[in-house]
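Structure request: DUF1707 and DUF2154 domain-containing protein, Kribbella sandramycini.
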Amino acid sequence: MSAPPPAEPPAVPARSGLRASDADRERVAEILREALVEGRLRLSEFESRLEEAQAARTYGELEHLVHDLPVGVEQTATYQELVPQAPAAVSPRIGGRPTSGTGIAILGGFERKGVWTIAQRFTSFALLGGGTIDLREANFEAPETVIRCVALLGGITVIVSPEVDLEVRGIGVMGGFEQGASGIGEAGAPRVVVTGFSFWGGVGVQRKVTKAERRRLKAERKERRQLEKQREDNS
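Returned structure:
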């Protein structure tokens, strides 16, 4: 008697059926606001679609709300960012039990670096002190991590690797909150949102490669220069 055929793996849902997040709904709402300002939607249409966007549960419901809005060449990148795409392979750095969810520096300092797992919600506080949150070799409890930084007469530095999807939302009052490192990361990479505020202090957010990666890149450049020199000598 022949063995029964192996069970087929469960079907992967189509993109339109995947669940949307609050951030996805807000991004589509931004498209609708721009369309209203440009005169592409009447106020009644905007209000109706905005209400539907806020209640949408899937990507398909969101895409339907912007399907008739023009997407020129100059708008393609923005459209692809604002209308959710099918998820890419998840980074192996995502998942696991967190080893730290807070960092506090009062008249002192704290440091999180090396191999560790950051909690999905991380709170940091610096008062007359300083702290460093280095995520270059870290693992992440969840695909999206929110880091809340509060710096009062102190400083906090957040460091991420170049492939991370990074958004900085914090504000500085008589202090600084760096925004320049924000940007879209590689597909499937962890997403980090840095929020909070600084008062008479500063929050720095930077993109840097690890020391090991820097050494590897330096060795590659050296090898490339040697090969170019050999070609010149042989020519």
